[in-house]
Specification:
single chain; mainly beta; Immunoglobulin-like; 5-stranded mixed sheet; 4-stranded antiparallel sheet
């Protein structure tokens, strides 16, 4: 015979477990992120992030990702990562590169090398990390370190897709290397309903693009 106090405790635990299980199953449909400029043109390499206003999304396991160096360029140009991720910088060219960053979230330097450095770089603070090469001044890329695991980078059509998000209230933001305003000023509310698709759209104002031109090899007539 189960005593009343024990029965009440078991009932409470059952309700808590059932409630937690129900919440775990309450997922929204796919979320489409759309980013365009003021002229309606799609914006590539924008990062749209969603931050839960309720229970925080569970942190993913530490990720291991790559920024390649191919034909004297960083690939990809923009890499969004969750805070704590490790990034390797393989050099696939047949010449040496010298990768560095002076950005506050992660200052580091990988002196002249070919191949892949033995240890990846851990990006343990949020923010924007600009990458450069001390040998090839035109090489430029960005690592955007986020504190939410819910983010997507837009493709050439200005769109990205998020799936498997818990239903509930979120705050959406957008970031881009040439964004004219601070990303905090782009925040907008977004509510995701169980099983329902959603869309979050941003119209952004971008600074003019300017990059150091590639040097021309006088002996080959091509960028060196």
């Amino acid at each position: 015979m189960i005593r009343p106090a024990l029965a009440a405790l078991l009932t409470g635990l059952t309700l808590i477990a059932a409630g937690g299980f129900g919440e775990a199953q309450a997922r929204s449909g796919p979320v489409e992120a759309v980013v365009t400029d003021e002229k309606g043109k799609p914006v590539e390499d924008a990062v749209v992030s969603l931050t839960s206003l309720g229970a925080p999304a569970p942190a993913p396991p530490p990720a291991k990702v790559i920024v390649d160096q191919i034909d004297k360029e960083f690939v990809p140009f923009v890499l969004p990562v969750y805070v704590g991720s490790s990034v390797s910088f393989p050099n696939r060219d047949n010449i040496r590169h010298h990768v560095y960053s002076f950005s506050s979230p992660k200052k580091f330097e990988l002196p002249l090398y070919i191949g892949t450095p033995a240890a990846p770089i851990v990006f343990d603070k949020p923010g924007v990390v600009a990458l450069g090469c001390n040998i090839h001044d035109w090489m430029l890329a960005y690592i955007y370190v986020l504190t939410t695991p819910s983010f997507v980078k837009t493709a050439a059509d200005g769109k990205g897709r998020l799936e498997g998000l818990a239903a509930g209230a979120y705050e959406a933001r957008v970031w881009h290397p040439r964004l004219r305003v601070d990303t905090e000023k782009t925040a907008k509310p977004l509510t995701l309903a169980t099983g329902e698709p959603a869309q979050v759209a941003f119209v952004v104002s971008l600074k003019s693009e300017w990059r150091i031109p590639r040097r021309i090899d006088p002996y080959k007539g091509s960028p060196n």
